[in-house]
Specification:
Layout: H1 20-27, H2 30-37, H3 55-61, H4 65-72, H5 90-97, H6 100-107, H7 124-131, H8 134-141, H9 158-164, H10 168-173
Helix pairs in contact: 1-2, 1-3, 2-4, 3-4, 3-5, 4-6, 5-6, 5-7, 6-8, 7-8, 7-9
Length: 174
Amino acid sequence: LLLNMKNIDVNKPAKNGATPLRIASGKGHKDIVELLLNMNNIDVNKPDKIYGSTPLCIASNNGHKDIVELLLNMKNIDVNKQQNSSGDTPLSIASYKGHNDVVELLLNAKNIDFNIATNTEATPLYFASDKGHKDIVELLLNMKNIDVNIATNTGTTPLYMASANGHKDIVELL
């Protein structure tokens, strides 16, 4: 009933800046996300005020594959939109967290840039190598033009982090 109201603002955020779509995406409420995405004026890229996190960022963070898939099907989704506070992208977040299925979806998205670095110059490959997520490292290494040598602002690379953390299988891949 609420969505049928003529004056309803589906993008109106709470004080923390989170919109209904952002909160439903983070909580994994697929049925609500579907309803909201069917609204003509929905802003799928609107970030919250605290972290600058978008619905796609928070769904990727929480491993909600079905919601990531719904969001990626929206024609105006910005798959590379970085969070204001950290510069993380949906792909860097999913790579850090080890959400293989979400990473796979994101890598197949139109216009994905898998070499985008965060505010500290860390890339998705860096995070996956650091955390020992071998399957994600393999997915990223299969991408044409992946840059394996991007270093953070402290000079560490994916190979450095895999070596430091004892991830022999990843060192062998790199």
